[in-house]
Amino acid sequence: MPKHPSTIQLQPRDLDLLTGLFESRLMTLAHASVIHFAGHREYAKKRIQRLKAAGFLRERLRKAYEPSILHLTRKGFTILSQMGLLEAYSRVKVADFRRRGDVSELTLRHELQVMDVKAAVYCATATIPDLVIERFCTWPLLCEIRGGGVGWADKPWVLRPDGLI
Hints:
Elements: H1 12-24, E1 27-28, H2 29-36, H3 41-53, E2 57-59, E3 69-72, H4 74-82, H5 94-101, H6 105-125, E4 145-147, E5 157-159
Helix pairs in contact: 2-3, 2-6
């Protein structure tokens, strides 16, 4: 470990993790290890410790018996913005990012359940040779489906699902 833990060389996997945290707002170490580290929990734990020490992500306050819940910091958001990795997310500003990060307890449970499904899909597909998840999006505006105006449903409608694979 370097003398100054805040110095870290960001790898493509780190950027994927930070972008995933931006998109989903939060995840546990278990989610991160399955989705971004191919199930290698110890490697995920060590790398996430380095990313926390460097200030790119942090843990939510929790009770001792609750799992660690990770979220992106402003520093992580800034680096993703500077690198152009958030352009698909409709120009989120720092104030929007901060407000979006305030997750209520009810929403927290829902978001963790969405991440449970995402991790389960990644885990299941890892056992199938030649099957790759190109994109698993949990950003409702990017998954938006519009319809209506034909037949019985003359009124236009919009569906914003929790995820799209």
